[in-house]
Design goal:
Shape: globular
Distance between the termini: 43 Å
Mean pLDDT: 76
Structural class: alpha/beta
Largest sheet: 6 strands, mixed
Helix content: 25-40%
Strand order of the largest sheet: 7-6-3-4-5-8
Radius of gyration: 16 Å
Low-confidence stretches: 1-39
Order of helices and strands: EEEEEHEHHEHEH
Length: 220
């Protein structure tokens, strides 16, 4: 029998705890993706770079990080058309499958963002399984039911925005979200930054915005 949990989402802003209501729904148990769903059949480009969104729109990047053997954390960051972060979150989820961690990162991030703006938004991440599901590229009968729950939640949240698109990117175009997710391992509670980033993310931010791009396999 499927059981959905509804944990509260607690945000920390300048040391002050606030409850963000209503809580989202997600299933926190490991789901193994179908081996054929997340295969990327397109070769990577020789030059990979993050790009800011068009004027009057936003871009959100999300990611999950696994600290062996099974501790995961998430990162979610939103930038404007100048490439400047307007919102970022990081959270330690404890023991959870990495696939569901990335899904929760996007779901929580969109719920939070919907309280701030309705602007058109582009969503990018390197979780091909989730993004293909959101773009209806997969046979829905092959998507694990635990992932379907999150897909439904994300699609419901999408209605808050003027327009929304979901795009799979290579890991090398997702450095800032990746760094936020890694930072989440050291967080005792979910963190929120508005219009600024912690110093820890300076290298990832500068590489995304000012760097000339990199080849596949490059890491910070």
């Amino acid at each position: 029998m499927r059981k959905d949990r509804r944990p509260p989402v607690t945000l920390v802003i300048a040391g002050q705890r606030e409850d963000n209501q209503p809580p989202i729904r997600y299933a926190i148990s490991f789901c193994k993706p179908h081996p054929g769903l997340c295969r990327n059949t397109h070769p990577p480009p020789s030059h990979i770079k993050w790009h800011p969104p068009p004027p009057n729109s936003l871009k959100a990047n999300f990611d999950g990080s696994l600290l062996p053997p099974s501790c995961v954390a998430t990162g979610f960051v939103v930038c404007n058309s100048d490439g400047i972060p307007v919102l970022a979150t990081s959270q330690n989820l404890g023991r959870l499958g990495i696939l569901l961690a990335e899904d929760v990162a996007l779901c929580v991030g969109l719920q939070l963002l919907a309280t701030y703006t309705t602007q058109p938004i582009i969503i990018e991440g390197d979780s091909k399984l989730l993004l293909d599901a959101l773009n209806a590229l997969n046979d829905r009968s092959q998507i694990p039911w635990r992932l379907k729950v999150l897909v439904r939640d994300i699609q419901a949240l999408s209605s808050h925005f003027q327009s929304i698109s979901f795009k799979h990117v290579w890991r090398e175009a997702n450095f800032l979200a990746d760094s936020l997710a890694k930072l989440g391992h050291s967080c005792n509670s979910p963190q929120l930054w508005i219009s600024y980033l912690p110093l820890f993310l300076a290298n990832a931010f500068q590489l995304d915005l000012f760097g000339g791009g990199c080849a596949q396999g490059f890491s910070l």
